[in-house]
Amino acid sequence: MWLADSTEVRYGVKGEYKLRFSGVLDLHGRYLLAYNLSPTETSEAIIQTFEQAFQSAGNVHPMVHTDRGAAFTSKVFNHFMDQHQVTRSMSRPGTPYDNAPMERWWNEFKLNWLDSQPTPKTRQELVELIETGIHYFNYIDRTIQRNGSTAKEYRDEAA
User: Fold this and answer.
1) What are the chain's domains?
2) One MF term from GO for this chain (predicted)?
3) How do strand 2-11 and strand 31-38 relate by DSSP bridges?
Protein backbone atom coordinates (compact mmCIF):
# COMPACT_ATOMS: atom_id res chain seq x y z
CA MET A 1 0.00 0.00 0.00
CA TRP A 2 1.25 3.45 -0.91
CA LEU A 3 0.34 6.70 0.80
CA ALA A 4 0.69 10.16 -0.69
CA ASP A 5 0.45 13.69 0.60
CA SER A 6 2.31 16.97 0.62
CA THR A 7 3.56 19.35 3.27
CA GLU A 8 5.03 22.83 3.33
CA VAL A 9 8.77 23.36 3.70
CA ARG A 10 10.59 26.68 4.01
CA TYR A 11 13.93 28.17 3.10
CA GLY A 12 15.54 31.60 2.98
CA VAL A 13 17.38 33.81 5.45
CA LYS A 14 14.24 34.02 7.61
CA GLY A 15 12.35 31.08 6.11
CA GLU A 16 10.46 33.50 3.88
CA TYR A 17 10.21 31.16 0.86
CA LYS A 18 8.03 28.09 0.83
CA LEU A 19 7.53 25.02 -1.36
CA ARG A 20 5.25 22.00 -1.31
CA PHE A 21 7.10 18.77 -0.58
CA SER A 22 5.05 15.92 -2.09
CA GLY A 23 5.85 12.32 -1.31
CA VAL A 24 4.80 8.76 -2.05
CA LEU A 25 5.41 6.45 0.88
CA ASP A 26 5.41 2.64 0.71
CA LEU A 27 3.62 1.77 3.93
CA HIS A 28 5.55 -1.50 4.26
CA GLY A 29 8.62 -0.30 6.12
CA ARG A 30 7.71 3.37 5.66
CA TYR A 31 10.03 3.79 2.67
CA LEU A 32 9.73 7.06 0.73
CA LEU A 33 9.58 5.98 -2.92
CA ALA A 34 9.54 9.42 -4.53
CA TYR A 35 9.32 13.11 -3.81
CA ASN A 36 8.77 16.38 -5.60
CA LEU A 37 9.12 20.04 -4.71
CA SER A 38 6.74 22.52 -6.31
CA PRO A 39 5.46 26.03 -5.60
CA THR A 40 1.95 24.71 -4.83
CA GLU A 41 0.18 21.39 -4.53
CA THR A 42 -1.15 20.70 -8.01
CA SER A 43 -2.27 17.52 -9.70
CA GLU A 44 0.66 17.91 -12.10
CA ALA A 45 3.15 17.97 -9.21
CA ILE A 46 1.52 14.94 -7.61
CA ILE A 47 1.53 13.07 -10.93
CA GLN A 48 5.26 13.81 -11.34
CA THR A 49 5.83 12.34 -7.90
CA PHE A 50 3.89 9.20 -8.78
CA GLU A 51 5.71 8.87 -12.11
CA GLN A 52 8.96 8.69 -10.12
CA ALA A 53 7.42 6.13 -7.74
CA PHE A 54 6.28 3.89 -10.59
CA GLN A 55 9.69 4.15 -12.28
CA SER A 56 11.34 3.16 -9.00
CA ALA A 57 8.95 0.31 -8.13
CA GLY A 58 8.50 -1.21 -11.58
CA ASN A 59 5.35 -2.84 -12.88
CA VAL A 60 3.17 -2.72 -9.78
CA HIS A 61 -0.49 -1.89 -9.20
CA PRO A 62 -0.64 -0.82 -5.55
CA MET A 63 -3.49 0.39 -3.45
CA VAL A 64 -2.94 4.13 -2.99
CA HIS A 65 -4.36 6.09 -0.06
CA THR A 66 -4.61 9.89 -0.10
CA ASP A 67 -6.57 12.62 1.55
CA ARG A 68 -9.28 14.49 -0.37
CA GLY A 69 -7.12 17.42 -1.45
CA ALA A 70 -7.89 19.04 -4.80
CA ALA A 71 -4.80 17.52 -6.44
CA PHE A 72 -5.91 14.00 -5.47
CA THR A 73 -9.54 14.43 -6.55
CA SER A 74 -8.81 16.02 -9.93
CA LYS A 75 -9.88 14.28 -13.13
CA VAL A 76 -6.35 14.31 -14.52
CA PHE A 77 -4.94 12.60 -11.41
CA ASN A 78 -7.72 10.00 -11.35
CA HIS A 79 -7.13 9.28 -15.05
CA PHE A 80 -3.42 8.81 -14.30
CA MET A 81 -4.24 6.38 -11.49
CA ASP A 82 -6.61 4.45 -13.77
CA GLN A 83 -3.86 4.12 -16.39
CA HIS A 84 -1.65 2.48 -13.75
CA GLN A 85 -4.44 0.15 -12.58
CA VAL A 86 -4.27 1.51 -9.06
CA THR A 87 -6.87 0.75 -6.42
CA ARG A 88 -7.74 4.02 -4.72
CA SER A 89 -8.51 4.71 -1.08
CA MET A 90 -9.31 8.17 0.27
CA SER A 91 -9.76 9.64 3.70
CA ARG A 92 -13.33 10.25 4.76
CA PRO A 93 -14.39 13.91 4.77
CA GLY A 94 -13.33 15.62 7.98
CA THR A 95 -11.14 12.74 9.17
CA PRO A 96 -7.51 13.67 8.55
CA TYR A 97 -6.34 10.89 10.88
CA ASP A 98 -7.29 8.40 8.14
CA ASN A 99 -3.94 9.36 6.59
CA ALA A 100 -2.13 9.21 9.94
CA PRO A 101 0.84 7.07 8.81
CA MET A 102 1.76 9.63 6.15
CA GLU A 103 1.22 12.52 8.56
CA ARG A 104 3.44 10.74 11.09
CA TRP A 105 6.20 10.39 8.45
CA TRP A 106 6.00 14.13 7.69
CA ASN A 107 6.09 14.91 11.40
CA GLU A 108 9.14 12.74 12.03
CA PHE A 109 10.91 14.08 8.96
CA LYS A 110 10.30 17.67 9.96
CA LEU A 111 10.92 17.34 13.72
CA ASN A 112 13.78 14.84 13.64
CA TRP A 113 15.49 16.06 10.48
CA LEU A 114 14.59 19.49 9.10
CA ASP A 115 14.18 21.20 12.47
CA SER A 116 17.50 19.81 13.72
CA GLN A 117 19.40 21.47 10.85
CA PRO A 118 20.07 25.14 10.12
CA THR A 119 17.36 26.67 7.92
CA PRO A 120 18.48 26.31 4.31
CA LYS A 121 19.12 29.70 2.71
CA THR A 122 18.65 28.66 -0.92
CA ARG A 123 16.39 26.29 -2.79
CA GLN A 124 19.44 24.15 -3.65
CA GLU A 125 20.36 23.89 0.04
CA LEU A 126 16.76 22.81 0.78
CA VAL A 127 16.90 20.14 -1.95
CA GLU A 128 20.20 18.81 -0.58
CA LEU A 129 18.85 18.79 2.98
CA ILE A 130 15.68 16.94 1.92
CA GLU A 131 17.60 14.38 -0.16
CA THR A 132 20.03 13.73 2.69
CA GLY A 133 17.08 13.33 5.07
CA ILE A 134 15.28 10.90 2.75
CA HIS A 135 18.49 8.88 2.48
CA TYR A 136 18.76 8.84 6.28
CA PHE A 137 15.15 7.70 6.83
CA ASN A 138 15.25 5.09 4.03
CA TYR A 139 18.77 3.64 4.47
CA ILE A 140 20.19 4.49 7.91
CA ASP A 141 17.42 4.93 10.50
CA ARG A 142 16.72 1.65 12.30
CA THR A 143 13.58 1.25 14.37
CA ILE A 144 12.06 -1.28 16.72
CA GLN A 145 8.85 -1.17 14.64
CA ARG A 146 10.86 -2.70 11.76
CA ASN A 147 12.65 -5.22 14.00
CA GLY A 148 15.82 -3.11 13.96
CA SER A 149 15.89 -2.86 10.16
CA THR A 150 16.11 0.19 7.96
CA ALA A 151 13.13 1.03 5.77
CA LYS A 152 14.97 -0.34 2.72
CA GLU A 153 15.96 -3.59 4.46
CA TYR A 154 12.44 -4.14 5.76
CA ARG A 155 10.93 -3.45 2.35
CA ASP A 156 13.41 -5.81 0.68
CA GLU A 157 12.53 -8.62 3.09
CA ALA A 158 8.97 -8.54 1.76
CA ALA A 159 10.04 -8.83 -1.88
Assistant:
1) 2-102 (3.30.420.10)
2) nucleic acid binding
3) unpaired
